[in-house]
Design brief:
Mean pLDDT: 80
Largest sheet: none
Structural class: mainly alpha
Helix content: over 70%
Number of helices: 15
Low-confidence stretches: none
Radius of gyration: 21 Å
Strand content: under 5%
C-alpha cells in the first residue's frame, strides 16, 4: 500500500487496503498452498513499482519491477501479460508527456521478448499438450460471470464507476491502470478460447479492479466530506462491509474446504494397508491421525 500511495494517493491506498483485507477471494487464496497467491503478490508489487518508476522516471525502479515480474511469471505462467501491461503503461506515459524515453521502452520490449522466449524454451517443453488434453472449459460469457464473482458484485459495480472516473481524468497514471483493467477483462474473454479456464487465472491481476473500486469510493467520499466528515467515514465503513455476506458464507456454508470432516471420513473407512490420493493430500494429512 505504501508503493500504491505514491501513484494513487493516500486515501485510495487506504481504501484498497481495507477492501483487500475483507475480500473473500483474497482470504481464500491466502489459505491455499498454491501459486496464485504468490502470483498476486509479485504481480501487484511489479505493477506498483512499475507505476512508481514511471512517475519518478527511475530506470532502477523499472529494473526492480521487471525482476518482480519475472518472479510472478515463475509463480505462474498466467502472469506473463504483466510485462505487456508495463509496456502499455510506459507507452501511455510517453504519449501523455509528449516525450519519448527510449531506454525505458527498450528495457520493457526486451523483457517482453524474454517472456516469449522463456515460454518456447522452458514452459512449452515442460507442459507439452497437457492443457490441450483437457476438454472442459467455460464459454467467454461464463468466464466473465466467474470474473465478476471472483471480485464480488459490490467491488465490480464500484470498479465500473472508478473506470469512468479514470477515463474522465486521463492522467498518465490513470491510463496505466486503465490498461491493466482492459488486460484483465481481455484475459477473462480470451483465455477460455485458448486453455481450459477457471477464475483463479484472473486473481493475480485482480488488484487493478480493487483499485478502480477504491477510486470510485474515494470520489464519493470526497463529495461527502464537504457535507459531513462522519458521513464520509460511515460510507467507507459501509462499502467495506458489503462483502461480509460472502465472507460469512465462505466460512459457514462449505465454500471453504472442510478437511476435518474429510479426514474423519478417511479414518473411518480405510484399513491399515489402504492408500488414498486426492487434491491437497499434504493438508489433509494434518487431519488424519495416521
Amino acid at each position: 500500500m505504501l508503493l500504491l500511495w505514491h501513484s494513487a494517493g493516500l486515501r485510495v491506498s487506504l481504501i484498497v487496503g481495507f477492501l483487500l483485507l475483507l475480500w473473500p477471494e483474497h482470504l481464500f487464496q491466502s489459505q491455499q498452498f498454491r501459486f496464485y497467491a504468490f502470483g498476486f503478490i509479485f504481480t501487484s508489487l511489479a505493477l506498483c513499482v512499475g507505476m512508481l518508476s514511471s512517475v519518478r522516471n527511475s530506470l532502477g525502479l523499472l529494473f526492480v519491477a521487471c525482476v518482480l515480474g519475472a518472479f510472478a511469471v515463475l509463480s505462474h505462467t498466467i502472469c506473463a501479460p504483466l510485462f505487456g501491461v508495463l509496456l502499455l503503461g510506459e507507452v501511455a506515459a510517453c504519449w501523455k508527456k509528449q516525450k519519448l524515453n527510449r531506454t525505458r521502452l527498450i528495457v520493457l520490449v526486451l523483457a517482453n521478448v524474454s517472456v516469449v522466449v522463456d515460454y518456447f524454451i522452458r514452459v512449452r517443453p515442460l507442459t507439452g499438450n497437457m492443457m490441450q488434453a483437457e476438454s472442459w472449459s467455460p464459454s467467454s460469457v461464463a468466464a466473465l460471470q466467474s470474473a465478476v464473482q471472483l471480485i464480488g458484485w459490490p467491488t465490480f459495480v464500484f470498479a465500473g464507476l472508478g473506470a469512468m472516473r479514470i477515463v474522465h481524468r486521463r492522467t498518465a497514471t490513470d491510463l496505466f491502470w486503465l490498461g491493466c483493467m482492459a488486460v484483465w477483462v481481455v484475459q477473462a474473454v480470451a483465455l477460455p478460447l485458448v486453455v481450459p479456464f477457471h477464475a483463479d487465472y484472473l486473481f493475480p491481476l485482480a488488484l487493478v479492479m480493487v483499485l478502480a473500486a477504491a477510486v470510485a469510493v474515494e470520489m464519493i467520499v470526497e463529495q461527502l466530506t464537504k457535507t459531513s466528515t462522519p458521513l464520509a467515514f460511515g460510507f467507507i465503513a459501509v462499502v467495506c462491509m458489503l462483502p461480509q455476506p460472502s465472507l460469512a458464507s465462505y466460512f459457514n456454508d462449505g465454500s471453504s474446504y472442510d478437511l476435518r470432516r474429510a479426514g474423519a471420513y478417511v479414518t473411518e473407512r480405510t484399513l491399515p494397508t489402504d492408500r488414498f490420493s486426492g487434491y491437497n493430500c499434504t493438508v489433509l494429512n494434518q487431519y488424519v491421525p495416521s
